[in-house]
Structures are given as C-alpha cells and as structure tokens.
Write a structure and sequence with these properties.
Blueprint: E1 24-25, H1 31-37, E2 44-49, H2 54-68, E3 75-80, H3 85-90, E4 98-103, E5 106-112, H4 117-131, H5 153-163, H6 167-180, H7 185-200, H8 207-213, H9 218-230, H10 234-247, H11 250-264, H12 272-285
Parallel strand pairs: 1-3, 2-3
Antiparallel strand pairs: 2-4, 4-5
C-alpha cells in the first residue's frame, strides 16, 4: 500500500518551471525528476513556502545551509506553493511553510510552521536515520553506512509466494512468523496487507457501480470500499463506509464498523487521513 498521500498524479509534466529561489526549485514540470526519482537514492526534503511569507523564506534559507553540510545524505527541493497548487494539494498542505520528507517516492515525515534550527536539525537526523541502509545514497558521501542486515528467509519466502500470486502460502508464512513471534510488527503489517489484497481479488469489478446505484446494498458497499482502497482512494473508501455506519443499525452496523477498522489497520495509526476518518466514525456512532 502506498501512503495516505498519493503523489502519482504529479508524474505528468505540466507547465515550464518557474524561476523560484532556494535549493532545487521544483514545480509540477520537474517534480517527478527532482523529487520522486531522486528520492529513490536519498530522502528529498520538500519545502513548500510562499514569497509573501518572510518566515517561510527564512526556513528555506536555513534548509539550504543545512543541506550544504549534510554530506549528501538528503536533498532539498523548494516549492513556491501559490504557484504550484497541485503540489500543495497533493501534500494536503494546511499551512505555510510545510516541510515534507519524501523517501522512495512516498512521504515519510513532515512538519508545519517555522522551527528553530536545533529542532529542524533533529528532525532531519531522524529522517536520515529512518532510511539508512534502505536508500543507496544515504551514507555514501559521509560516514560509513551500518552493515546491511541479512534478509529474513521467512519474509523472502512470503514475498516469493506473493510474486507467484500464491496468497494462501504467503498468508500461512506470515501467520507462522506471528505464531512464533506474536509481537513481530513487520509480520503483522504484511499479513494484514496480504489478506486485504487476497480479498480484493475476489471483489466483483462492478461493485462500485452497484454500490452507487443502490446505497442500501451493503455487500456492494463493502466491496466498493475495498476497490477504492486498492485503487489508492482511501478517503473515498473511508467516507463510503462511514456513510453506511450512519444509515445502518445492529448487526449491519457492526459489520460495517469492523470492515472499516480493518482498513484503518493498513495504515500507520498516526496518518492524518486515518485520524480524520476516526473522528468522522466517532461522530457517526455517537
């Protein structure tokens, strides 16, 4: 599963890049190259600012200074938010400045508002530590990288089963890992995602049309929510199920709520989109 923020729409080039100051100036036209592709090597810190906000320009200048001394462990991309609204919308920007670390094409961490240099430095160090050993460019120009940890053969076997489309075997492997190590977070997350993917394979491709045509068709609504999630439309998926929570009662409501909670578990609990959906669910229930 990709994260709650989907950046894939920004892979299509748009207008020519504008001349904006700071770091690698990024617009929709060069976003794919400067951010998505570059983030496969090192984390790219995307600073969304406004020329009308002195505080955000000051933060950009601070990041420019820090990246110059980073040893190449991360890169900086600056985005003038008002001139590049699609990028700001893709990152769900709520305020300026907003800083987002992107790694392997996905948002990793973010903060909003001007911050003192010490806190920004600590945040950057945490970002680099989170991807050390996972992105090839981190540590290449500075201190020696930590030794690579050998892959767990059980996870390798599960991934090979997935590549062959053998969901049952992959599920069984992850379940065996959890039986031996009940607190293995990686196995828990992998099991949830594989179970979801296996379930989606059985969904009627016409479920979305059926659910929209008949809101009272609960089976179609659940299937449609799964399709939307699989198609990287988590907000639409959550909203559909929350609407069903509002209109159902008794066992039907319990069934919908359980299904929704299972979808929540595909994400980090701290994901903003999940937190927002949980608030909507609480309002629908009470």
């Amino acid at each position: 599963m990709s994260g709650a923020v989907d950046l894939s729409a920004l892979k299509q080039p748009a207008a020519a890049a504008a001349d904006v100051p700071g770091g690698h100036a990024v617009t929709e036209a060069n976003f794919e190259d400067q951010v998505l592709r570059r983030s496969a090597q090192v984390p790219v810190v995307v600073a969304l600012y406004s020329q009308r906000s002195p505080g955000s320009v000051e933060l950009v200048r601070l990041l420019e200074k820090l990246v110059a001394n980073s040893g190449g462990d991360w890169d900086l991309a600056t985005v003038e938010a008002e001139a590049n609204m699609r990028i700001a919308q893709a990152f769900q920007v709520q305020g300026i400045p907003t800083v987002v670390a992107v790694a392997a094409g996905q948002p990793l961490a973010d903060f909003t508002g001007n911050q003192p240099e010490e806190q920004v430095t600590q945040w950057l160090a945490a970002v680099v530590d989170a991807v050390r050993g996972k992105l090839p460019g981190v540590g290449a120009g500075g201190a020696e990288a930590e030794p690579e940890v050998p892959e767990d053969p059980r996870f390798v076997a599960a991934e090979e089963a997935l590549e062959q489309g053998d969901f049952d075997s992959a599920i069984a492997i992850y379940q065996d890992i959890l039986n031996a190590e009940p607190n293995n977070a990686d196995a828990k997350a992998a099991l949830r995602q594989v179970q979801f993917i296996a379930r989606v394979q059985q969904v009627d491709p016409d479920a979305l049309a059926k659910a929209d045509a008949d809101p009272a068709d609960l089976d179609a609504a659940l299937a449609a929510a799964d399709l939307e999630m699989f198609n990287q439309q988590p907000e639409a998926s959550f909203d559909r199920l929350i609407a069903q929570v509002k209109r159902t009662a008794g066992d039907d409501r319990t069934r919908v709520r359980t299904h929704l909670l299972e979808l929540f578990e595909l994400f980090d609990p701290a994901e903003p989109i999940v937190m927002a959906a949980r608030r909507k669910l609480a309002a629908a229930l009470y």
